[in-house]
Amino acid sequence: xxxxxxxxxxxxxxxxxxxxxxxxxxxxxxxxxxxxxxxxxxxxxxxxxxxxxxxxxxxxxxxxxxxxxxxxxxxxxxxxxxxxxxxxxxxxxxxxxxxxxxxxxxxxxxxxxxxxxxxxxxxxxxxxxxxxxxxxxxxxxxxxxxxxxxxxxxxxxxxxxxxxxxxxxxxxxxxxxxxxxxxxxxxxxxxxxxxxxxxxxxxxxxxxxxxxxxxxxxxxxxxxxxxxxxxxxxxxxxxxxxxxxxxxxxxxxxxxxxxxxxxxxxxxxxxxxxxxxxxxxxxxxxxxxxxxxxxxxxxxxxxxxxxxxxxxxxxxxxxxxxxxxxxxxxxxxxxxxxxxxxxxxxxxxxxxxxxxxxxxxxxxxxxxxxxxxxxxxxxxxxxxxxxxxxxxxxxxxxxxxxxxxxxxxxxxxxxxxxxxxxxxxxxxxxxxxxxxxxxxxxxxxxxxxxxxxxxxxxxxxxxxxxxxxxxxxxxxxxxxxxxxxxxxxxxxxxxxxxxxxxxxxxx
Length: 507
Ligand SMILES: Cc1cc2nc3c(=O)[nH]c(=O)nc-3n(C[C@H](O)[C@H](O)[C@H](O)COP(=O)(O)OP(=O)(O)OC[C@H]3O[C@@H](n4cnc5c(N)ncnc54)[C@H](O)[C@@H]3O)c2cc1C
Ligand code: SF4
Fold this sequence. Notes:
This protein is mainly alpha-helical. The protein folds into three domains: 3-127, 3-Layer(aba) Sandwich (Rossmann fold), CATH 3.40.50.620; 136-193 and 245-321, Serine Threonine Protein Phosphatase 5, Tetratricopeptide repeat (Alpha Horseshoe); 340-506, Orthogonal Bundle (DNA Cyclobutane Dipyrimidine Photolyase, subunit A, domain 3), CATH 1.10.579.10. It is 49% helix and 6% strand. It contains 23 helices and seven strands. It has helices spanning 35-39, 45-64, 83-94, 107-113, 116-120, 136-143, 151-161, 202-214, 231-244, 246-249, 269-274, 279-291, 297-321, 340-343, 349-361, 366-379, 384-394, 400-411, 428-434, 455-466, 468-471, 478-486, 489-506, and strands spanning 3-6, 28-32, 68-72, 98-102, 123-127, 166-167, 170-171. The strands form two sheets. A five-stranded parallel β-sheet has the order 3-2-1-4-5, with helices on both faces. A two-stranded antiparallel sheet has the order 6-7. Helix 2 (45-64) runs antiparallel to helix 8, helix 9 (231-244) runs parallel beside helix 12 (279-291) and helix 12 (279-291) packs antiparallel against helix 13. Flavin-adenine dinucleotide binds next to helix 11, helix 13, helix 16 and helix 18.
């Protein structure tokens, strides 16, 4: 029996389930760079460099551990271009009579894999992904019978189950969640540490040349290439975060400062999502920092909640609801994505800054994605699939299982409130409070209407007004509708006029 063990580009983990019981002398581990996956959306160039370089390094490490690896590079003459055709070619070349693979992170790929057994005529075993703390099946049991799913309750159960930040069955510190301590506004005098910087070795250099050559029309800058491409480097990035940034992660989690894309965030999603790091090792490192007195509870709990709470929760929602979730469009949004999402050419400074940083780094932190880029897409009613495609393209940590629920559920409320209890809509005052962007903006954040007013201000009320029939039963918006109702008819008319004019200018 010779088994083909397929390892995908986001499965770069030595303990991945597809390698369990691998017979190193007979089995073939297949890894392949294929055009179909690199271009099904036009991924940011930096993401392609990250994945191809990390895959090549991982393949070499597997060989050093005694595995027989068949690796197809993108520019190999006999590369057939798709996962399925590479699997087929390798089976024939090596005479394999079974395929073993770990379930992919995307419904589209899973659907295709489920046909392989019939199409290829050999047993295909799709194994559960053992890198998460809960399986899609466990999540569906948790979700069944609940009218509304809320991350906070899911998080508490996971925390108890894995005894994370717990003492005698109670959360350490007496509270489950310290978010109220985690909203410090930006402080220009902060001495923010530099992010992790990789060494660009020969392998990465070759991949950079390949990507510059073959993916020139894709969005984004390759240089500076800063990302870890091996597990050893990713562990180094994790240690740097724990030592230099974690202590302030909580305090400045929501803050945005012009010219400071990295703030006190971890920048670990790149590695968690492609398998170079495992969630529990990040959680345990943060928990240890708390016990050693090196980081406060609000930071450590906040960081851990993102990983064992949000990350697991959005994955659960993805597998529970696909493929229907991708088609959700609660507000019927259909505006085309404005071209400045690609060029950053807008007078709205917050958007321009976040897009410029996204282009350069293939990264923006959570509040930039949620309250600037996402908030604008929500308020202006941009087509759900266009927004999803943009977010899937531009970030190096983007995979559909995590991107889609964050975009359709969290920012666009396209699922009508399945994931979030209310739309994350806000006017300019939120952005002004949590950033220093407004100081250098063409628009005035304090002005509510008129030519020079911050567009977020009138667009916010316009969004509530035009979607009233869909939102007025949401008790979390009652206060806002009461405020709107107290406005004079003239003021409402100006809001509508300014909004219509602005929206017309987007096309
Ligand atoms: C519109 C939108 C799109 C997003 N798209 C993605 C995406 O494609 N891939 C992705 O990994 N995250 C996505 N997120 C979640 C979050 O913004 C990123 O995980 C985070 O910014 C990554 O940076 P970091 O590693 O510095 O995170 P930190 O702020 O340091 O957080 C620590 C870790 O927690 C996890 N995490 C935090 N928030 C979330 C969340 N909402 N969902 C899932 N995991 C979370 C990540 O693994 C992250 O590395 C998106 C959020 C929004 C609002
Ligand atoms: S004034 Fe408005 S558009 Fe300008 S940076 Fe502030 S929030 Fe953004």
